[in-house]
Amino acid sequence: MESCRFMKMIAVLAMSVVGVIIFPAASFLHLRNREWAGGQFRQDAQPKKASFTNPVLELEIKYESGVTAISFSPDSKILAIGVDDYTIQLCDARTGQVERRLNEPDRSLRPPGVYPDGQRVYSVAFSPDGKTLASAGDIIKDNVIAGGQVTLWEIPSGKLLRTIIVNREISAYTNSVVFTPDGKRLVTGMTRYRPGESAGKHISKGEISEWDAQSGALERKWEPLDAGIHSVTFSPDGQFLVAGCSDAAIKFLDIKKRELRRTLRGTSRVFSLCFSPDGKTLASCVGPNLSAIAGQIEPLLKVCLIDAETEQLNLMPVSHRYFVTAVAFSHDGQYLASGDEGLYSLSSYRHEGGTVKIWRIK
C-alpha cells in the first residue's frame, strides 16, 4: 500500500514537472478566453466582448531581440514579424508558433557596438495574393549604412526570390515598403538627410519610389515630401497612398495624380501606420529613440488610434512595457497586432526582449 502511494506521489510530481516544462511555451498565449483541454486549446462559448476601448489580449509572443515590423497575411493566418537580429519570422497568427524563419541570425561574437553585415528589417508587407512577402531596410556593411534594399520572399516556402537595391547612400534610410493594390509594383518610403544651416542640425526629406515587383526596375519617383517618411500604406479603397512622417503628419496622396490631397496632424512622429479594413481607423505608433512627448512617456508605450473622418486621436487603453515600434490590423478586422523594441542592453548594444501582442478588437 505504501509503495503504491509512493508511486502515485512520483506520478503527480512528474506531471507537475512536465507542466512546468510545457506551459511556459503556451503561457505567452495569454489565453484569457480559452482553456487547455485534451492537448488543445478550447475556445469559450462566450468570449469577452472586445473593442478599441476594451481590447482583449489574445496572444503574446516574446523574442530575444527587439521587434521592428509586423504584417498579417491577406487570409489573416500568418503573421510576419521583423526582428532586430535581421531575421523575419513567419508565425501562425492563432497560436504564435514559428513556422519558418527567413535569414538566420548572426550569433558570432563581436565587440560592443559592432553590428553584423546584412539587411536590417524595418518593414514587411504581403502581396495582395499572399504569395510573396517584401521586406525593406538598410544594408549594413563594415558597421556602417551602405544603402537600402527590398527583399522578396516566396510564401509559404520562404524561398528568396530577388533583391532590389533601392539606394546606395549613407544619407538615406529605407524605412517602409508596400505592394500596390494590384500587386504589380512596390512602393518604398525613405528618409533622406542633409546638413542644416546650424552645426549638428540635419534636414530630412521624404522620398517615395515605385518599383516593378517582377523585374525590380525603378518605374518612377514621386515629388519629395518636406519631412522624412517612416511608413507607407494604401487606403483600403485603393485611392490613396498614405505616408506617416517625422513631423507628425499623415499625408494622403492621390494615386492617379500623385498629388497631396489631405494631411492629418498627429502629436508626434508617425513611425508605423496601418488602416483598419473598413478604412475608418488608422493605427500608428511613435516609435523608439524619441524624447517623451510634452514630458509624458505614455504615448510611446501605446498604440495611437486616429479616426480617419473626424481626425480625433485616442490612445488604446493598454500598454507595452517598452516603446511600441510596429502595428498591423488583421485583414478580417478582428485583431490588431503591436510590437515593441524591448530593452536596450548596454552589454550587447542592441535591443533585447521585444514582444508582439495580438489584441482582439471585435
Please provide a written account of the structure.
The chain has helices spanning 2-27, 298-301; strands at 34-37, 40-43, 56-62, 67-72, 78-83, 88-92, 98-102, 118-119, 123-126, 132-141, 144-154, 160-167, 172-179, 185-195, 202-212, 218-221, 229-234, 240-245, 249-254, 260-265, 272-275, 281-285, 304-307, 313-315, 324-329, 335-340, 343-345, 350-352, 355-360. The protein contains 2 helices and 29 strands. The strands form 8 sheets. Strands 8, 9, 10, 11 and 12 form a 5-stranded antiparallel beta sheet that branches. It has a 4-stranded antiparallel beta sheet with strand order 3-29-26-25, with no helix packed on it. A 4-stranded antiparallel beta sheet has the order 4-5-6-7, with no helix packed on it.
Quick summary:
This protein has two helices and 29 strands.
Main beta-sheet strand count, sense and barrel state: 5 strands, antiparallel
Strand content: over 45%
Q: What is the CATH-assigned architecture? A: 7 Propeller
Low-confidence stretches: 1-30, 32-43
- Mean pLDDT, to the nearest integer, reads 84
Relevant CATH superfamily: YVTN repeat-like/Quinoprotein amine dehydrogenase
CATH class (first level) name: Mainly Beta
Percent range of helical residues: under 10%
Give the number of DSSP strands. Answer: 29
Please name the CATH topology.
Answer: Methylamine Dehydrogenase, Chain H
Number of helical segments with 4 or more residues = 2
The structure class reads mainly beta
Number of domains: 1
Calculate the terminal CA-CA distance, rounded to whole Å. 55 Å
> What would you report as the Rg, rounded to the nearest angstrom?
22 Å
Shape: globular
